[in-house]
Amino acid sequence: MTGAPSSTVRLAPEPLTAAAFAPFGQVIEAAHGQSYLINGGRTRRFHALAAADCGADGEPVLSIFRGTPWPQPVRIAMLERHPLGSQAFVPMERLPWLAVVAERPQPEACRAFLVRGDQGLQIARGVWHHPLLALAPVQDFLVVDRRGPGENLEEHHFPATVEVLVDPV
Amino acid sequence: MTGAPSSTVRLAPEPLTAAAFAPFGQVIEAAHGQSYLINGGRTRRFHALAAADCGADGEPVLSIFRGTPWPQPVRIAMLERHPLGSQAFVPMERLPWLAVVAERPQPEACRAFLVRGDQGLQIARGVWHHPLLALAPVQDFLVVDRRGPGENLEEHHFPATVEVLVDPV
Q1: Is A43's CB within 8 Å of B67's CB?
Q2: Residue B167: how many CA atoms within 13 Å on its side-chain side?
Q3: Does the complex come out with an ipTM higher than 0.90?
């Protein structure tokens, strides 16, 4: 008697660009979008790179997520999504990190992005993603997401026989 | 004929603590507040350190402010406030910065805080404050504030004969 055959999906991290990430949300970085000088010319505002989406009954809250790294190479076994609101992650130090997102909760649909330390991401409402993947021993992110009534977390676990392996970065 | 006498108000920057800043808003830092582990223990969430306040007709947007320093010693001549929404500033690098806030738009009411590089601030709706005071040559902040109808900026300029001098930090 043998078990079911197991399979491994390999993901090579892609560089993060606004165009590549568009199906999943917004890139929060100073390199694109409309910007203009304010404060007598001493500050440049890169305006409204993302708008928090918290629904009519939710409110946006600011939290800090302190991440510790997944072991390398990164193996992931599940995805989650927030059906009631967006969730933004912005590094509080210039350390690169990793994001895994998917249009469908299937191993073959996963895409990995290597995110620079000066880039944040807003994951759109309802988009499947893996929880925070820090790469450095201690890595703080400002998170803007929704507080409010209702169940705002769905999880999807892959079959035990499927392994998603993110190539080392 | 002589001009009006001029005066200088000197401000010594105080260290930033949640208690000292309470009349003006919230400190966004990982050192206080309710925190708990998520993501299978790999992430600690310091939850809801601030809630964005955008009113019924506004929406919260995420922008990046790229600041350049005021000359040292810092001389300020005005304050501003946002009557329709809160405004949060969170450093994207671990570089200290300076905040000036006031309960009334008067030179004598100003208080200066030296903010550590791992601390952000949310300035509450309607609180008088000076525009961003960066200390390093180029300093990026994530800003969460309100977009929506109405005039969300009031400025108050001090009399030309009054100088507010923030002691060097």
Answers
A1: yes
A2: 8
A3: yes
- Compute the distance between CA of residue A40 and CA of residue B105 in angstroms, rounded to an integer: 19
For residue B64, give the nearest of A40, A49, A134 by CB distance. A49
Q: Would you kindly state where each structural domain of chain A is located, as residue ranges?
A: 7-166
- pTM here? 0.94
pLDDT digits (tens, 9 = 90+) for A52-108: 999 989 999 999 999 999 888 899 999 999 999 999 999 999 999 999 999 999 999
Q: Are strands A120-123 and A25-28 parallel, antiparallel or unpaired?
A: antiparallel
Best residue in A63, A94, A146 to probe B by mutation, most B CBs within 10 Å? A63
Q: Answer yes or no: do B131 and A59 touch at CB < 8 A.
A: no
Q: Do A47 and B63 touch (CB under 8 A)?
A: yes
> How many angstroms separate the CA atoms of B134 and B72, rounded?
11
Distances from the Cα of B150 to the Cα of B57, B83, B84, angstroms: 9, 10, 8
pLDDT digit string, tens, across residues A107-160: 999 999 999 999 999 999 999 999 999 999 899 999 999 999 999 999 999 998
CATH number of B7-166: 2.60.120.480
Tokens at B33, concatenated = 């507040």
